[in-house]
Amino acid sequence: MTTTRTEAPRTTDPTGTTDPTGTTDPAGTTADRGRRRLSARVRILLWLLFVMTVALTSVAATTRSFLLRDVDHRSNGLLAQETGEFAAFEERGLDPETGRPFTEPDRLLRVFLERQYADPDEELIGLVARPGGDPAQIIQPRDLPVALPLHRDAGARRRIFDSPDPSGVLHRPEGEIRWAKVPVARHGGHSEVAFVVAYHPERELARVDQVFRVLLAISGVALLLTTGIGWAVAGRILQPVRLVRTAAAQLTEQDLTRRIPVRGHDDIAALAKTFNAMLDRLERAFAVQRQFVDDAGHELRTPITIVRGHLELMGDDPAEREETVRLVTDELDRMSRIVEDLLLLAKAERPDFVSPEPVQLAELTADVFVKARTLGDRDWQLTDTADREAELDPQRITQAMVQLAQNAVQHTTPGQTIRIGSRAEGSRVELYVADSGPGVRPQDRELIFERFRRGTSRRGARGSGAGLGLSIVKAIAEGHGGRVRLHDTEGGGATFVLTLEEARG
To answer: How far, in Å, CA of 274 to CA of 134, rounded?
Structure first.
């Protein structure tokens, strides 16, 4: 009997990894999916709207708080003014009928109220306590633009009359009342009396709310305009970024010539310049790579063919085998040198190809002379030495000078003169190798510095060179910000000069 085991389906998360438990994190997946859906343009717009919303809401709320504070100041000022006027009238006022100070509180309140002109939202009331009931009131006969005036609200009058506080705010469903009262001193056996000022702020508060709603409406319109303008501006700002993305998507190894147009001098223009510089470096890197592959295939094909041919034709004769091994070994050595030279030329494109350091030119020239003397039986002469310090890479310069000396040996015969020297003038440093050979024809002077090219004036057989030596010398000179020059030697021959224009003494 066989049993079948069923495995739970395995799920793959958005990063491409498989969850063996068959579960995924819904929150993380949703968040990642949401971030992918929102483009940079939308995110910029959302952040802009968020900032604008906070700013406009803050402005509207701050304006409302200022207006409410003005209402408070206005109401408090009115209450203080009316109570102050009544207190002064109570202290210094005279009854118009008798010409003497008031002796009856009712008479005091009536005369004062007759002489006052209250604001539309203001009530002036005199309250007189009655035993076992609500206080009686003395009012100004006029209409008030409020839902329930104080003189019609007995409960509110009682609460104010009984309050021990000189002022306060009374909250009612019909609207709040801000009030202040001045107790009237007892006169003989008369009842307790109080003067009350009541302010109804409903209309002022309604105007504040109206202004707040208008500000919110204006803010909404501003947000709509900001949305449209922000969308257009974000698109215009991000257009070079889209061009960068499009160019990157269209780049191939065969076509690295596409560039981003640079406009202006802002950060986006700097981004475009940086991207173009990166494309320049990529194009050079791919060009060097292609050239390396082409050069290697071109130059290594011949020694490989020679090796294969000799191995296929090798017989059983020991002498023939020995000669074949010698020839094969020689070709393999030549292939190794070609590969090393090609790798060196490829490295010349890197920024760390040369490592300048302070070097004494006289000591460097003497070292080069000592090393060059071992290259062949020639009349070696150390002619000039510059007694100064320069910023250069001593290993690379030695490599270039030894290569020039080797080139001079190949173009001269034993006993002929080869001169090595250095000189300096101002900020320019020159190191040279001069031979007394047949020289270089004018039509070959540029040709010989190219890879795998040799001048037609070269004597003898092909030898072991691959035509890369002078290319290496040129690369070293250019790595120092200089160049290599060629001119005729006085009396016959060729002089190669490394001119380092940017060397510093």
So the answer is: 88
